[in-house]
Amino acid sequence: MTRDEEFQDLRPLLFSIAYRILGSVVEAEDAVQDTWLRWQATSTEPVSTKSYPSAVVTRISIDVLRSARVRREAYVGPWMPEPLLADPYEDPERAAELADSLSTAALLLLERLSPLERAVFVLREVFGFGFPEVASAVGRSEAACRQLAVRARRHMSEGRPRFEADHREREELAGRFFDSFREGDVAALRELLAADVHLVGDNGGKAPLITQEAWGADTVAGLMVQVLERFDRIGVSLEPRTLNGQPGAICHAPDGKVLSVLTLDVAEGRIQAIHALVNPDKLAHVGPVADIWALSRAAEQGTPGE
């Protein structure tokens, strides 16, 4: 196998590392491409064909994240990661860690960490790299990386729900939720929501949004019905999909283009959070993006979308 073939085999892993550090599909793909260019430019044969590109993509991602943090401070409204339809990297031995770290809730928790803490956590806790490899990747001593890992684990564990729902329970609950949503059944929706459910919308100031944030089963159920009413006016359809390893849905305009995505956090037998992403800049990799402003005007006028 040539070095180039070895790199192509590693692409899924490299993308998965970069995506978890950056929370962006586009930036992760760019980080992998930059790693590929550096790989091609290197004349020295690396000791480990896995560790070397993993370290490079990690360093690139840390630098990108530091720059992104500045931009995110000026972001309009709540920030959410770009949705991922499927994780290209599979490892049966770490399947649970991989799935857990991919959820919208986990990625939002990772946002609380410093870039170095985030990188150390991803490499060590998610992908199982040894501390010597982690230290080489982030340019810190092993002792420093162990301290970073401890702090990162503490921050992550503090924000996680106490009881995780298994895959089958999540899918069943999500199915009931989307059925109730399509029917506009406020009572049924309220029954499925946690008392302190959190609805958060990310439009980045680039798309209309009924609300950026809301709390409580009564309020959120009512808002979801308002959303459905607007959808019905213009013929928006709902496609249940697994997004970031969690139950969700892609909302399509009448012409089939992507309007928004919804993801659900499920724990303790209830929906704990609903994330609605409508920022068109974060949806282009999902599919052709609809003109949400035109659809919003159509909804206000009660006419079908173009």
UniProtKB/TrEMBL annotation:
Region forming the signal peptide: none
Source organism, top-level taxon: Bacteria
Protein name in UniProt: RNA polymerase sigma-70 factor
Keyword terms of this UniProt record: Sigma factor, Transcription, Transcription regulation
InterPro entries: ECF_Sigma-70_Domain (IPR052704), NTF2-like_dom_sf (IPR032710), RNA_pol_sigma-70_dom (IPR014284), RNA_pol_sigma-70_ECF (IPR014303), RNA_pol_sigma70_r2 (IPR007627), RNA_pol_sigma70_r4_t2 (IPR013249), RNA_pol_sigma_r2 (IPR013325), RNA_pol_sigma_r3/r4-like (IPR013324)
Similarity remark: Belongs to the sigma-70 factor family. ECF subfamily.
Quaternary organization: Interacts transiently with the RNA polymerase catalytic core formed by RpoA, RpoB, RpoC and RpoZ (2 alpha, 1 beta, 1 beta' and 1 omega subunit) to form the RNA polymerase holoenzyme that can initiate transcription.
NCBIfam families: PRK09636.1, sigma70-ECF, SigX4
Source organism (scientific name): Catenulispora pinistramenti
UniProt domain RNA polymerase sigma factor 70 region 4 type: residue ranges: 107-156
Pfam families: Sigma70_r2 (PF04542), Sigma70_r4_2 (PF08281)
Domain RNA polymerase sigma-70 region: 7-69
